[in-house]
Amino acid sequence: MLNEFLLHLAESLEAQTTSQMLVSSYYVWSWVESAHVLTLILSVGCLFIIDLRILGWMLTDSSATEVAQRLHRPMILAFVVMFLTGALLLYAEPVATVQSLWFRLKILLIFVAGINAWIFNQRLKNYQPSCERAVVAPLSLRIGASLSLGFWCLIIVFGRYIAYDWVDCDNTGNTAILWASGCVYQLQAL
Amino acid sequence: MGFRLCLPVASTLTLPGEHVLTNRVISGTRLREYPRTMIFGIVLLFLGLQESLGIREAVHYDLYDSFQWLKHSSWLGVIGSTYGSVYATIEAIHLISMAVLGGCIFVTDMHLLGLLLKNASTEQLVRSNLKCIKLTLIIAIATGIFCACGVADKIYEKPVFWVKMFALLTGCCFQFLIKQPLLDNYSANKIDKLTLRLTALSSLLVWFTVAASGRWIGFS
Fold first, then answer.
1. Considering only CB atoms, which chain A residues are within 8 Å of B88?
2. Distinct helix (H) and strand (E) counts, chain B
3. How far apart are CA B51 and CA B58, in angstroms?
4. Are A45 and B100 contacting, i.e. CB atoms less than 8 angstroms apart?
5. DSSP state of B178
6. pLDDT in tens for each of the 220 residues of chain B?
7. Hey, of B81, B96, B111, B118, which one would you mutate to test binding to chain A, going by the most A CBs within 10 A of its CB?
């Protein structure tokens, strides 16, 4: 039911003139995708610096909480732009993107990474006095930082895979992949 | 100790022993005090000359066979063009290394601009970031070579690829011949603030050019 709803929504978006103009425009599409990648480099780069500091692998002479606080604003700004450009990219090709297994995995991981980030921030506030100058943060924070690194590496990998058509609806006959990708018409044809 | 604005990153940037060599090459001039700046300037001059005099274009056609070999005969090119999943994964690793490199460059340069981590020691922050910059640069270049081999015949035709290579060369030269020696040999509080900020701004612009031109390869 969810797959049918998402496909119907994607088809209605794809029928809009603005969506068709966006996907057919050479320069606008290029600028949006470039902005998406460049803000990804900035936002994920700042995130990686914070996580590597928590793990005690770099910037060990600076306070972990200060590093996290100082990099928080540019990271969030870059994340906002990244999400906006990502939404535009989805809007430009809604049907193909919604039916991409890699896109679905990417969104799921972004959701999980967001939960991990929220838990991490809560723990960072609670542990603040003790990890002001500690080279290595407490175990729970290090676990959160490691998970964050892993999640975002996978998000980047799956984001890169979206451009490839290995498991697209028309290129696979595997029922599980078709269901996971939301290939409604291909599933109905089986 | 004054610093020249016309050469914003240069003053007496010589290490012990360099005076002897450069004094033999250029004597009686102030230029001997700026060996690394001279090397960087010569590299930029060479790049500019070979573009304006059409040297690259003349050599360009001779490189065609080499790029064809990279794509069809080298094992990197064969793996990259045959196994799409391997190519995509290496591309993603290239992007991840660029993200970490970008983060390190951003933190260092924003600190030099006085916008981030103002309470941190410049020397310690630069030293801490340097290892990360070197490691991620090595990974980015290694994965970049693999990616280039997989599509060597296509990137050969794209001017933006050569722009990225020149920007990468400029960025590496600037980082290791200008910025790092400046920050290693002089305490940050003894360096002119304008010099530091111009250095940071130049670094940000060069690496942004590398990232942006790399992305534009996919569109051209």
1. 157, 160-161, 163-164
2. 11, 0
3. 10
4. yes
5. I
6. 333 333 333 334 444 444 444 444 434 445 555 677 777 778 778 777 777 777 666 666 777 778 888 888 788 888 888 888 889 899 999 999 999 999 999 989 998 888 888 877 888 888 888 888 999 999 999 999 999 888 888 888 888 888 898 889 889 988 988 888 888 887 777 888 888 899 999 999 999 999 988 888 877 6
7. B96
